[in-house]
Specification:
312 residues, 4 strands
Length: 312
């Protein structure tokens, strides 16, 4: 085998096989494992060093053993090394085990009585590889039938539906924790002082020029009253800041300047200014916006009255 795979082929081949297996089995994300984990690089370097050392040692041992051989043994070794792949002993033994072919000298013992216009038939055995493959197919067919027809295993269509459903769940969970993929459907109102302070800084830098530092309104509308041109609440406000105001006369879209998490912070800060009553505010614009997801006081009172009447 060494003759057909010389050392300059054998060593790189073994090294890159081990390298590929490590890259396949080690989860390193979008970076190569030997870059992300320095110990992998150390292992590969040591492995390559040992591989080269083994080859050098074996080569030295073979040279010493060759010097200790008798002339007859040297001649036999040289003869074996001169044989081609198909003429080598190990190749012939392997092919005989796989095919169970009989020597051509024994064809007379294998002849059958059939004779069609001079064409005769030999009673050869089926190749073992074919027989074993046939048995494997039978076993596979029995297991396949039992799994999907008897025990009701999931077929390809059902597996696809389950994988798509699980993928949707995974995407939804990821969107909840991925700020840069936030949209008006997943955004939530922030109330903690740290995020509100960050929102105030963003507002002062980008929004105060049109809405004043106190959000009382200047070129842009007053943001402290309960009237909104494009709807209030965190979801509507996030959508407006992201995509801009009314066409031709509204605010520009900030999605190219601010990240979704930053838009969430500044929107939360703006909503925290509701009812702050700044000095000399701009006249109200838009319509009064009511959050339909929050029950009104009238509805609560009506529910209480109905409950009282039922009790009576």
């Amino acid at each position: 085998m060494k003759k057909f795979f010389p050392v300059y082929v054998r060593v790189p081949l073994i090294f890159f096989i081990v390298f590929g297996l490590m890259e396949y089995f080690i989860d390193s994300g979008d970076r190569a494992a030997f870059i992300k984990y320095p110990m992998v690089s150390v292992f590969l370097f040591v492995f390559l060093f040992i591989l080269i050392a083994i080859e050098i040692t074996l080569s030295a041992v073979n040279r010493i053993m060759y010097q200790l051989m008798s002339p007859e043994e040297k001649a036999k070794l040289e003869y074996e090394n001169s044989l081609s792949l198909t003429e080598s002993t190990w190749y012939k033994d392997l092919m005989h085990k796989l095919t169970k072919t009989e020597p051509i000298e024994r064809e007379g013992d294998l002849l059958m009585d059939h004779d069609y216009d001079g064409i005769k038939e030999l009673d050869n055995n089926l190749p073992p590889w074919w027989v074993y493959l046939f048995y494997i197919c039978i076993v596979f067919g029995v297991i396949y039938f039992a799994r999907y027809e008897v025990f009701g295993g999931d077929d390809q269509e059902m597996e696809l539906k389950k994988e798509m459903a699980q993928a949707k769940i995974d995407v939804d969970e990821y969107l909840k924790t991925a700020p840069d993929l936030m949209d008006e459907k997943t955004v939530v109102l922030l109330n903690d002082p740290e995020n509100l302070a960050a929102g105030k800084e963003i507002f002062t830098t980008n929004c105060a020029a049109c809405h004043r530092a106190d959000a009382g309104g200047q070129i842009g509308p007053n943001l402290t009253d309960n009237r909104w041109i494009l709807g209030g609440g965190i979801k509507n406000l996030f959508h407006t800041i992201t995509n801009g105001g009314r066409d031709g006369k509204g605010m520009i879209a900030w999605k190219g300047t601010l990240k979704p998490k930053e838009i969430q912070k500044v929107a939360s800060y703006i909503l925290s200014l509701q009812g702050s009553n700044p000095k000399d505010p701009k006249e109200p614009e838009g319509e009064i916006w009511v959050d339909e997801s929050v029950p009104t006081k009238d509805a609560t009172a009506s529910t209480s009255a109905d409950s009282t009447e039922v009790k009576k």
